[in-house]
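Deliverable D5.2: sample structural annotation.
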Amino acid sequence: MPNLLLTTRCVRSCPYCFARREIEASSSADSVSWEDLIFLADFLEASGDRHISLLGGEPTLHRDFVDFVLYLHERGFSITVFTSGVLSNACLCDLERYLRAVPPGPLSFVCNLNDPEQISAPPGETERVHEFLSVMGPWVSPGFNIHRPDFRLEFIIELVARYGLMRQLRLGIAHPVPGNPGTHVSPGMVRQAIDRLCSYRALFERFRIKPGLDCGFPLCQFSDEQLGWFHRLTGEALRFYCCPAIDIAPDMSVYSCFPLSRFHRRSIYEFDSMREVLDFYHHKNDAIRAELAGIFEECDGCIHREEGVCAGGGACHLLCRLTDEAPVRLPEIQRGLSDTRLP
């Protein structure tokens, strides 16, 4: 499922944001055009891919956001919108009038929530998020990015119960950006963050909320008991992966994911299908891991990594280590690294 950035403008300034480079380099013209949206819809359809995620910045800032969603829905795409929930009154009215007619499933939202007690918000922002959830609650899965080990989840559980949100919590882990690491969870903090997450077991079970782990969590930092609990609660096998997400920017450039936005960035027009895009970035990520096995020394020779059960943590962590090294790596890694350095 590729991610299309409708705009790189945003309404928030999260301390852990790994899209900051894209946002800071944006201008008022950095928005997807109708021509490019139609091209991408054709490109995905020809590739046999009927799923797309709409991101930003804040995707609802695009003046044609609602029309884009309705167009993609009419063409039979399954659409996931990643939003802060901070919407204008006009956009919220349009969502209520037009998008509530699209059933949950073909259309869903992931609302990335920040703890108001740990990240300060401008006056009125929290109220706007609540207004969005009150309108679109059944279409919304809560999302949370862990950027410090002492995080809190009580406020999310309360929002799920109050607004009838989907009972699937998408949990990301804040990653560093090569050349400008920013606020992130270091390898030494991962186990502490996982223990903190598992301390919410009783609340997850009581409210029947399934935690879903995004990329970058390493298997070895979970105890057998914790792994068993996750499997019992979700009924699914955990995935400890780090693979290309495929982000497409408003200028039609494409890259592996936000933290690696300057590592072998290309144009979507260089490829004939999504399979070609995925194969290209899988090869680039494999080249990184040929240089460093994982975020821990123990990743080298780990049977779980060798069998493909665990990726060994996020590739962005590995690239951060390589960025500050002497130029002794494979040529294609060095060429990629030169692009990640800040001017």
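Annotation notes: The chain has a mean pLDDT of 91. The first helix runs from residue 20 to 24.
The annotation will be released with the project's public dataset once the embargo ends.
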